[in-house]
User: Fold these one by one.
Assistant:
Number 1:
Amino acid sequence: MNKTKQSICIIGLGYVGLPLAVQSALKGYTVYGLENDMQKNELINAGKSPIKEAFLEINLPKVKIIATNDPSVIKKSDVVIMCVPTPIDEMYMPDLELVRIATKTITENFNPGQLVVIESTINPGVCEEVIEPIFAKAGYVVGKDYELAHCPERIDPGNEKWNVTNLPRVVGSFTESGLSIAQKFYETIIDAEIKPMKSIREAEAVKIMENSFRDVNIAFVNELAKSFDRLGIDIVDVIKGASSKFSFMPHWPSCGVGGHCIPVDPYYLIERAKASGFDHEFLKIARKINNSMPEYTVELMQDALNKVKLPLNGTIVGLLGISYKANIADLRESPSLQIIKHLEKHGANVITFDPHTPTHSTEKSLDEILKKSTAIIIATDHKEFKDIDPVIFKEHQIQVIIDGKNCLDKLEIEKNGILYKGIGR
Ligand code: SAJ
């Protein structure tokens, strides 16, 4: 990394941009954060993290990040990194609008010789077909006036072992010089391998591949779970058995696949490949299976209530967990939101509690939701729920438990006279 390149502007201070900004500042860079949410900027400028995450809460107070909504900070920066959301819309179509806006903003505040990096997850082709043309239209030539690289973000919210400081990365660029500068830059920030890719397209394909790989493997066990429910086989036991084989990679069935990565990224490849005449049948089937799990969970609840002669319609169902995964506060694409919709469609009276997202909970405590509920669904395997003594459920006269994360002790719950049904067990 050229020693004169000392200032960085990170566009988007969310789950990806903020940890990167903190880590860059810890490594001695001058860091500007370009963020539209002024509330978030005020917190960050006061050294407070808007995101509940250990790495941020510990390190943000130690560094100086200039968080602002003034795009002129781009001009002051030697490196500009786009960490903006790349969501899908309600028709599962990729939405690159924020990438286009960020790119245009960079061209309007251009600093010749800049290294421009996009970390947001994008499909192969976006750098060449969307981003570079915006620079070209503004009269800037890649490899001459600026360098453009893609270093896909790797963040696992709530993971204490792997975080922005030590997760290996891949990087791709349009030019050899761009690749070398980007690789050297990331090597000054991240204490892990920064793997150069053959071209920017391969770099764009890596994140999509790794997350589609996870999605199809989860879909595999979700389909098996549905089959084993009919066959009376405990899938968790089978997965543990199969895991005794060296090449088996365990994945776990659940009430659904949420988050900003896994249920979203495959659609970026599906749609771009379709535009080139290829139909990703396998990826689409996996998405269909995983998207069916919230409704399947509600069907299990309906069947279980029938067994205790209760209709779903009118029954108070307590939903434990709204976050998309354990021990974090993040609702993006959370299966819980779909489960609520399906329960209400069947006339159930739904109440919710999540200790990590109190603002989205109808009930203030675990005790309160258990007191009011006839039946419950565990939708997120938060530690608070896994530690519940089954006797507590009995004391609150819970009649049915659907364990959407297979995280409770089935036998102990059944011993307390409660009808238990997991996903595939
Ligand atoms: N899930 C299952 N079964 C599984 C694993 C996950 O149903 O076996 C569900 C989770 O409950 C959640 C969703 O899938 O709703 C996504 O879970 P996740 O563990 O994949 O967590 P994410 O979405 O935060 O993904 C992150 C990403 N990590 C990085 O970018 C470094 C993703 O690329 C990783 O593959 C993933 O963590 C991981 O492997 O932990």
Number 2:
Amino acid sequence: MCGIIGYTGSKKSLPILIEGLRTLEYRGYDSAGVTVAQDGCLVTVKSRGRLTDLEAKLSSSGELYGSAGIGHTRWATHGEPSDKNSHPHSTEHLTLVHNGIIENYAEIEEMLRGAGYDFVSETDTERGAKLVDMFFAKSNDPIDAISRAIKVIRGSYAFGIIFKGFEDTVYAIRKDSPLIVAHDGEGGFIASDIPAILKYTSSYYRLDEGIIAKVSTEKLEFFAPDGSAAEQKLETIDWDIEQAQKGGFPHFMIKEINEEPEALRKTLEPRIRNGLPHFGIEAIDGELLSQFESIHIVACGTAMHAGLIGKAIIEKLARIPVNVEIASEFRYRDPILRKRDLVILISQSGETADTLAALRHAKAQGVYTLAIVNVIGSSVAREADSVLYTWAGPEIAVASTKAYSVQCAMLYLLAVRIALAAGAIDEPRARQICDTMLSDIPTAVTEALKLDRQIYDVATKLVAAEHLFYIGRDVDFALSTEASLKLKEISYIHSEAYAAGELKHGTISLVTDGTPVIALTTVGKVCEKTVSGIREVKSRGAYVVCVCAQGLVGKYDIPCDDMIVVPEIDELLATFPAVTVLQLLAYHVSALKGLDVDKPRNLAKSVTVE
Ligand code: F6R
């Protein structure tokens, strides 16, 4: 997620821009840049890497003393992290920073090439900047140029812009990406988030979608796209910077769980075109896909658990065998790989050493590799034959949450695409699944988040546990593996995920009076069977929490002590709200125990060693 800051006022802008970007570092970034307006020029300095790299570059450039400027930290989406892909992007008439994704950037590029524009970067943002430039060249009116450009642009954006001839004014607009606007009496600010302006003022406007902000030293003005004046609501907060970075949540983990509806939307929307999955990758959209005879999904930890969900859905829809492998095993056990196999690597960071080694092993065998990765330009993304980015934004908590949900979403889309290519489902069925995913998954996850209080109450009953079990069948078993990992890694309670029918083959001897068992029942066809498993543990004294799909409540007599009802959704998609419930449960147990939720002991966010 990119960070935007802009300032115009009575002070020098550069220190304010750098300081502002520093407070936005938590959003994650791979490059940074600033433009300062001075002496009628827009001077831009940008650099791949950290803010310290930008500062090193700035110290060897001429002095930037202008009192208006914009700054940006970039989390790459289109084009690898590099100096030229960094923002601000400057054109003949303006300089612009952007947070979001312009979906129709290719169409815009074609239009602009026709009008004589060339491009120096691979970014969607440069296309957006040149589009605004084209309109501005005709009218010399910033508000008119912005209004016309946003009529053409599809996707999400928060833009900060300074136009030549209007160098002491910063313009801003947003859609589906955050942006606030503020004034401290001596100058005006735009920023992606509150921490960037907190040092100067605690009052701000959260810019409404489609409203253009005109920020000057004296005042803030707001305009509707037709140029008429608009009103915005002033808000005030009393958070400190750290609280503000967490969006007012006590931990990054809970903030990131709450970001799931948005992250899922960002992953799904751009990949569904005309009602069908569309990845913009020839190999995956075209002929090659129909030629794969079997699939290996290779990953570690949570990403591997997403692979288990992927196996279930791909096999169900496409009827192609899928093998899920732990990367550290795959790389050494000489797996059987055939020319017509597909190897899918899943990784949030794209830097996990075992996953990277597994990828290299598969490539050395001449097998086609597809990576599902969150971090743009990471090693796994660069080395795989194709890559699908999940666009969940940076994940800061060590325990992966939103990244898992979007990995699952991407695997669902892939499953539909593979099933279509294999002729296992027809187009109407594929359209119906895509349609339901897009309309229902973010909504059901939002509903699941509303169960927070009930989940907290259940968590209070688990904090004293030393051991517990998650049980389920079919997809619920796959989901249990992730729920169990989430709980144990942050709460330090020993937990195991068990296929509900397997307990009685030995492990049930561990279930005694009060042993907590979390039972998952979201799959209708095996629900009755899981209920038998629940009876077995209940009759040995277990304290049972059932996480049950709404459609199955009341159909069976489930002997549980507490029930959390997963919000209604097509059974095929119940995984999504169910996992949110389970992540919240793990979170609350850890938080109630007073543990360091975001940085559990012995763990690192990115495991780059074997
Ligand atoms: C657990 C967790 C880990 C990672 C694993 C792989 O919450 O985050 O299990 O999933 O280390 O990491 P990536 O996805 O970066 O390859």
